[in-house]
Amino acid sequence: MKWMKKIYIYRHPELVEGGQKSLLRSCFDRLSMTAFFVITSRLQNQFYLNYHERDKENRIVFHTRFTGLLTVSLILLFTSCEKETDWNLDNGKLPKIVVEAMLTNEDTTHEVVLSLPVSSLNETPAMVSGADVKIVFNSTTYNFTEDSQNPGHYYSDSTFHGIAGQTYSLLVQYVDQDSIGHLWYGSDVMPPAELFTPLSLALANTTDSIYKISYVASGYDPTRYAMYEIFLDWRHISGYDTISSVATLYFYTLGSLDMGEIVGNDFENIYFPKGTKIRERRYSISALYAAWIREILIETQWNNGIVVVQPGNAHSNLFDLTDSSYNAAGFFSTCGVSEWNGVAE
Questions:
Q1: Considering the domain boundaries, does residue 130 fall inside one?
Q2: Mean pLDDT on 283-303
Q3: What is d(CA 320, CA 172) in angstroms, rounded to the nearest whole number?
Q4: Quick one: what percent of the chain has pLDDT higher than 90?
Q5: Which residues contact 289 (CB under 8 A, 6 or more apart)?
Q6: Which helix (H) or strand (E) holds 279?
Q7: What share of the chain is helix, strand, coil (3-state, %, to 5)?
Q8: 168-205 burial by CB neighbour count: b if 16+ within 10 A, else e?
Q9: How far is Cα 230 from Cα 248, in angstroms, rounded to an integer?
Q10: Are 261 and 209 within 8 A, CB to CB?
C-alpha cells in the first residue's frame, strides 16, 4: 500500500510556552472556574429563596453572610488550585552525538552536521566542534573541515559525487566533554537516481487562480523507497513579495503501511498563486534509511493512531567502534537525486 506524509511536530501551545507546569496549572484553572460557578449558583438560589421569605433586616443579615461565604469560597478555590507540580521525567540514556549526513550523486560540496542531543523540544542543541570527519569509498578518502563561522558544520574539502550501487562509509572521531574518545562509523549503499512524473496541481480558487498540490509520486512502486522535496516560491509575483511567500514540503514513499500510521494526520495544504516557481527533487533512498524515517514519523506525527508506540529514539546506522555501549542519533544516508523544475499555470 502507498502512503505519503509530511513531517511536522504538533506542540501544545501551553507546553511550548511554559512547560508541564503551565499545562497542569491550566487544568487547575478550569476546575476552579467550574467549581466557582456551581457554588455561586447554589448560593444565589438560596439567597433569593430567603429574600422573599424574610423581612428586610433578616435579608440584610443573610446577604452579609452570603457575601462572606462567597469570599471565603473564592479564596479557597483560587489559592488551593494554584499549586504547581514538578514532574521528574526520566530521559533514559541519551545518545552521545547527533549526526546529520547525506551523500548524493551530485558533484558538489557535501555537508555533515554534528550536535549533542537535547531532552526537550524548546532546547537549543550544542554543536560538536573539533571532530575529525571523513567519508571513505574503497581506497579513496574525502576529508571534511569545520566551518569556522558555523560550529558543528563540516564541509568536504573538495567537490565529489556518489556512484549508484556503491557503499560509502562515514567516520567521525572526536573527544567528548568527559574526555572520552569516540570513533563513530556508519555506512549506506547508494541507490540509483530515477526519472519521475512531476507533481499534480489543483485549482483551489478559480477566481484568483490559487493552486494547491493534489498529488505527488505518480506511478508508485512499493519496492522503490523515495523522499520528495518540493520548493515553492512566489515572492516574484506582485502583492506576494514577502518572506512568507515560500514553502518547502517533504513527502515519502516508504513501501508499507503500519497500524499506527492508518489514522495519521493529513499533510498541510499550502496555497499559492499562478506563476509560482516549483522545484521538485526526488531522493532515491535505501531500505535502511526508509526504515529510519518511518520510525521518526511514528515518534512524531503518527504517535496518536490505533496502536500507540512507546516513545524512544529511532535506530541509527552509526555506532562507536571504540565502545559499542555508546549510541548515536541521526543517520548517514546516500541518495541518488533527480530534479524537475516548473511553474504553476
A1: yes
A2: 84
A3: 9
A4: 50
A5: 188, 225, 317, 331, 333, 335
A6: strand 277-284
A7: 25, 30, 45
A8: bbbbbbbeeeeeeebebbbbbebbebeebeebebeebe
A9: 6
A10: no
Is residue 52's pLDDT more than 80? no
**pLDDT greater than 90 at residue 262:** no
Same domain, 33 and 182: no
pTM: predicted TM-score of the whole model, two decimal places? 0.70
Helix (H, G, I), strand (E, B) or coil at 336: strand
Hey, which of 87-91, 109-113, 219-223, 323-327 has the most confident mean pLDDT? Answer: 109-113
* Higher pLDDT pick, 37 / 60: 60
| Residues present in the chain in total | 345
At residue 119, does pLDDT exceed 50?
A: yes
Q: Are 279 and 341 in contact (CB under 8 A)?
A: yes
> Do 74 and 117 sit in the same domain of this protein?
no
Is residue 8, in this structure, part of any structural domain at all? no
Whether residue 21 is found in the same domain as residue 122: no
CA nearest neighbour of 316 among 190, 189, 225, 186: 186
Q: How far is CA 153 from CA 61, 327, 330, in A?
A: 76, 21, 15
Q: How far is CA 228 from CA 22, 49, 179, 242, 278, in A?
A: 38, 71, 41, 25, 13
